[in-house]
Specification:
The complex is a heterodimer.
Chain A: H1 2-32, H2 39-82, H3 90-112, E1 128-130, E2 133-135, H4 137-159, H5 161-171, H6 173-178, H7 183-205, H8 217-224, H9 226-233, H10 238-258, H11 263-278
Antiparallel strand pairs in A: 1-2
Helix pairs in contact in A: 1-4, 1-7, 1-9, 1-10, 2-3, 2-7, 2-8, 4-5, 5-7, 9-10, 9-11, 10-11
Chain B: H1 2-8, H2 20-39, H3 46-71, H4 79-94, H5 109-126, H6 128-131, H7 136-156, H8 158-161, H9 163-166, E1 174-175, E2 178-179, E3 187-188, E4 191-192, H10 195-219, H11 221-231, H12 233-238, H13 243-269, H14 284-297, H15 302-312, H16 314-326, H17 339-357, H18 361-379, H19 395-405
Antiparallel strand pairs in B: 1-2, 3-4
Classes of the chains: A mainly alpha, B mainly alpha.
Chain lengths: 292, 406
């Protein structure tokens, strides 16, 4: 029971980070129906900026720069490539993001070379003991940050003008455009927010507490685990992203302990497969209706 | 995916009723290519032949994937898993039991190869409950789970795969007692036929078979049902196409091709070595590389898949062969630009350019060239009216309508 509780705590801590990443997928998908396969490379890019500048700027400055950089790269990709091909359908644009991902990831991995730097943290890395359960500070910070960001996003989505515009566009692109909503602005902000969230997530990903490894190609593949999170929650559901993130975190932690560490990555995907077979559009996703 | 496919993929089917003369011209061109390929071993060094074999391995896999993604409209990132499955099956069946560490059956290599292909087809069929229910990107990500399962299988089933640290050696291929190695003293035109030359002919034969069968499938009733399902599932069902069967069939065929390519991969490396992480010979990056071949070549085009394989798998080979001659890529270690890295950049950029500027891929460019050839001939009045070729722009839609009608 004690181990189980410990695993749940760890799983939720990791799940918070996955939720941040999954939310990024969902925001982009909602506004443009594009799946961003380049999300992992945004994560790597943010992390690389932190590692490259932290000596000069200090951790906080570098972290801010990394988050901003990831957001900026997302906007650049959207403005420079995706917005240029309005005629192409969302699925071919998703293939395009694969091309972006390949290039950015390879370049950053080349720059990293053999070094696998930890991003480090501004907070004390010493774990806290509560009633025999170890709480990693990274997880605590991640949960707090995720809670704040997701709540902020939710409120903005519900009440701000941007949120209304975004929801309108998600509902019906053409109708929204006819109502005077600038799809350009909505799309751009969606990519910006997703990029920023990826930049925040990497601050927790490449640490001892989260993955036990530093920034490398493996970080990119950890970011890939946010795919199942977004999909099993339902690609067009923000609540689904949060639930999906937590499920992925828990499944990973529990299967690593009770089955085997090697299996934990596959377990996440298997759970996703199971959900998809039962509910093809995820737990909270809207069902597609086909008419002839 | 259906929209994607209709927009980007123009089928490899020859346009209905092109002029007879042009069809003969095409056939003659293919034959000329074949003759050149048959003659190459007499002129090329072994390392170039080896590079060519790698491209042919890619071509076989890419032909399978282009049928699935382009013709049947199902996005798959699982190709690497089926490569591993095919390679492992061949190795386990064909290899002997001398090495007590691993399981081997010592079957006839040709039989093993056939069983490996059949087995991967069955594995593809087994994925039908998932592939039948999902579409587009959902299916793409779902199929990614197979790659992770393959990674786990490679690590844990070391009695079969040889384990991630050492791997295991596959039995050399043999056909009715004729072994594809350096033995024997066969000579053609004074050129000794050793392993590289023999393997070249083996790979060429496999590629040609794969190519011809794929063309047949695409041009037949089966291919038509795939395209109908791709364009609109509900309409296809209404027209009497068994959607579930068409989808499952496409996945099985594509997996069988990947299984063959997997066996070719193992024979090429002369070792079966499962990956330690998800970025190896059978990892996500390989799935993406195959997808890149298919996109660059033009979704659904069998000929395009060949060219795509030439670019994605050929470039690193050619670059590394030239690098020793030209003295480029001499850097190593941290931050070096290796041939593989450069090729990755090239195909990443090629994907972006293709999606942005020519959704039909290289196949569409080729079609445009033959199309303009066609029009020139028409001006000369050698062509009948029915063969009118649609203009270079917007021809995709035109042809789609035709397919649906036919």
């Amino acid at each position: 029971m004690h181990t189980f509780l410990q695993l749940v705590v760890n799983g939720v801590g990791k799940g918070a980070v996955y939720a941040l990443l999954a939310l990024g997928f969902v925001i982009i998908f909602k506004s443009t129906e594009v799946i961003n396969f380049a999300h992992g490379s945004l994560v790597l890019f943010g992390g690389y900026l932190v590692v490259a500048t932290r000596d000069a700027l200090g951790w906080t400055g570098a972290a801010l720069l990394g988050v901003a950089g990831a957001g900026l790269l997302a906007v650049v990709v959207e403005r420079l490539l995706l917005s240029r091909s309005k005629l192409a359908d969302p699925n071919s644009l998703a293939l395009l993001t694969i091309g972006v991902d390949v290039i950015v990831t390879e370049e950053i991995v080349r720059r990293l070379g053999v070094s696998v730097p930890f991003i480090g943290a501004a907070w004390d890395a010493k774990p806290i003991q509560v009633g025999g359960i170890t709480l990693f500070r990274t997880h605590l910070v991640a949960m707090a940050v995720a809670a704040v960001l997701i709540t902020a996003f939710y409120l903005a989505f519900k009440f701000s003008n941007w949120g209304v515009a975004m929801r309108a566009q998600a509902e019906n692109r053409e109708a929204a455009a006819l109502m005077g909503i600038r799809s350009r602005g909505v799309t751009m902000t969606a990519w910006l927010v997703a990029g920023l969230l990826a930049g925040v997530a990497v601050l927790f990903l490449a640490t001892q507490d989260f993955s036990g490894a530093g920034l490398s190609r493996a970080t990119h593949s950890i970011a890939l685990a946010a795919f199942p999170a977004a999909i099993l929650g339902g690609l067009d559901s923000t609540a689904g992203a949060v639930v999906g993130g937590l499920i992925v975190g828990l499944v990973e932690a529990l299967s690593a302990q009770y089955i085997s560490f090697d299996f934990s990555k596959s377990a996440v995907f298997l759970v996703m497969l199971l959900v998809l077979v039962i509910r093809p559009s995820g737990l909270f996703g809207t069902r597609e209706i086909t008419r002839v | 995916m259906s929209e994607l496919a209709t927009r980007t993929a123009v089928t490899a089917t020859p346009v209905k009723a092109p002029a007879k003369s042009l069809r003969w011209l095409k056939l003659a061109a293919w034959l000329a290519v074949l003759v050149v390929l048959l003659a190459l071993p007499l002129y090329l060094q072994a390392e170039w032949l080896k590079a060519g074999q790698w491209m042919m391995t890619g071509a076989v896999g890419a032909i399978g994937l282009t049928m699935l993604v382009g013709q049947a409209g199902q996005l798959s990132l699982a190709h690497a898993f089926f490569l591993l499955a095919g390679g492992t099956t061949y190795t386990v069946l064909a290899s002997g039991t001398e090495d007590g560490r691993v399981v081997g059956f010592g079957l006839d290599p040709l039989l093993s190869l056939l069983i490996a292909v059949a087995f991967t087809a069955l594995l593809g069929l087994a994925f039908a409950p998932v592939s039948g229910r999902l579409r587009g990107i959902y299916l793409g990500v779902a199929s990614l789970s197979l790659v992770f399962l393959g990674l786990y299988f490679g690590q844990s089933a070391d009695r079969l795969t040889g384990g991630t640290s050492t791997g295991r050696t596959p039995a050399p291929f043999a056909l009715f007692g004729f072994t594809f190695d350096s033995s024997g003293s066969l000579q053609i035109l004074g050129v000794p036929i050793r392993q590289a030359e023999k393997m070249w002919y083996l790979y060429l034969a496999l590629t040609v078979i794969a190519f011809v069968l794929a063309r047949g499938a695409v041009n037949s009733r089966v291919g038509r049902s795939w395209r109908a399902v791709r364009d609109h599932e509900a309409s296809a069902a209404a027209m009497g196409v068994n959607v579930a069967r068409a989808k499952a069939g496409a996945f099985a065929v594509s997996s069988a091709y990947a299984g063959l390519a997997g066996a070719m991969t193992v024979l090429w490396f002369d070792i079966l070595k499962p990956d330690e992480n998800e970025f190896g010979t059978y990892g996500i990056n390989v799935s993406i590389a195959y997808l890149a071949m298919v996109i660059i070549g033009g979704l659904g085009s069998i000929g395009g898949a060949l060219v795509g394989a030439l670019i994605v798998f050929g470039l690193p080979q050619v670059l590394s062969l030239y690098s020793t001659q030209l003295g480029i890529f001499t850097g190593s270690g941290e931050g070096a630009f290796t041939p593989v890295l450069v090729s990755t950049f090239v195909y990443g950029a090629a994907i972006i350019l293709v999606v942005l500027f020519e959704p039909g891929g290289l196949a569409a460019i080729g079609r445009r060239i033959t199309g303009s050839l066609h029009r020139d001939r028409k001006k000369e009045g050698t062509l009948d009216e029915t063969a009118a070729f649609p203009g270079p722009r917007g021809d995709a839609d035109h042809r789609r309508v035709r397919h649906q009608g036919g």
